[in-house]
Amino acid sequence: MAAITAAMVKELRERTGLGMMECKKALVAVDGDIEKAIEEMRKSGQAKAAKKAGRVAAEGIVATKIAADNSYGILVEVNSETDFVARDENFLGYVEKVVDVAFERKETDVATLMAGDLEASRLALVQKIGENINVRRVKLVEGGVVAGYVHGNKRIAVLVSQQGGDAELARDVAMHVAAVSPQVVSKEDMPTELVEKEKEIFRAQAEQSGKPAEIIEKMIGGRINKFLAENSLLEQPFVKDPDVKVGALAKKAGATVTGFVRFEVGEGIEKEEVDFAAEVRAQAGL
Fold first, then answer.
1. Domain boundary assignment for the chain
2. Phi-psi category of 158—alpha, beta or left, where left has phi over 0 and alpha has psi -120 to 50?
3. How would you list the strands of the sheet with 256-264, edge to edge?
4. I want to staple 174 with a disulfide (CB 3.0 to 4.6 A). Which of 151, 158, 244, 281 is the partner?
5. Which stretches in the chain have pLDDT values below 50?
6. Is this structure's pTM higher than 0.85?
């Protein structure tokens, strides 16, 4: 059997990012062949990644990349299990790689995007970091002027498209969307079924007042108008100048906001509540 030297272990650690004992064990198993050790570790990494795939990944970051001419942009969410890993340089480097590939290909189908190198890199990262990593969603925004905003903690990101105006205006609108989270661009865009659902709720509340039917209908109309104004981007007071509505701000600049996409890390994912004390007791057999 070949002697396993410290230099061999060091090289394997640098190339895989794994622990010293894992590297030494892998080298012993393949009689000191570093390339063979990497191959076997990758195989092992895939197996471990599969085991970790069932664990909830609801942390992570969102990221954007926008064309130099502001003709299109890509928005990506990549999840990890913990916020700690979401700040790890290796994780951040992987996210950047995902964004670059999605941007270059204008690819929004996650399965298609991940086929090939990105999936291999994901598996290697899972092995290295020890957490489930998941590319959750990708969105392309194009047409007109496209600009974006990423909140400082990288948990909220927005892309906005508009006809006319400039990128600075689109970025300001994106910042507003990040802060206020409108549901639609204009009140005409609000889904009919959602409006009807709100009407049912308002009617049930109004009927408890005992007022005449015609008064109730006026009350419902007023509540619906308020609901639409509060949840439609163009009707909202601009976050940087509440005296001006977003629609009026865009119009003054000769622009029309045509769409937006807002990603917030983990939205819609059911997080597992962990009782750490109970977990420790269970592991200790108490």
1. 6-52, 59-190+232-264, 192-227
2. beta
3. 145-150, 156-163, 256-264
4. 158
5. 46-47, 274, 276, 283, 286
6. no
Tens digits of per-residue pLDDT, 103-130?
999 999 999 999 889 999 998 898 888 8
What is the fold, at CATH topology level, of the domain defined by 6-52?
Helicase, Ruva Protein; domain 3 (1.10.8)
Between the alpha carbon of residue 157 and those of residues 32, 64, 145, 147, the distances in Å are 47, 7, 17, 11
Give the contacts of 74 (CB within 8 A, at least 6 positions apart). 64, 65, 66, 99, 102, 103, 106, 138, 139, 140, 141
Lookup: tokens for 30: 């393949």
b/e 10-39 (16+ beta carbons within 10 angstroms → b): eebeeebebeeebbbebbeebeeebeebbe
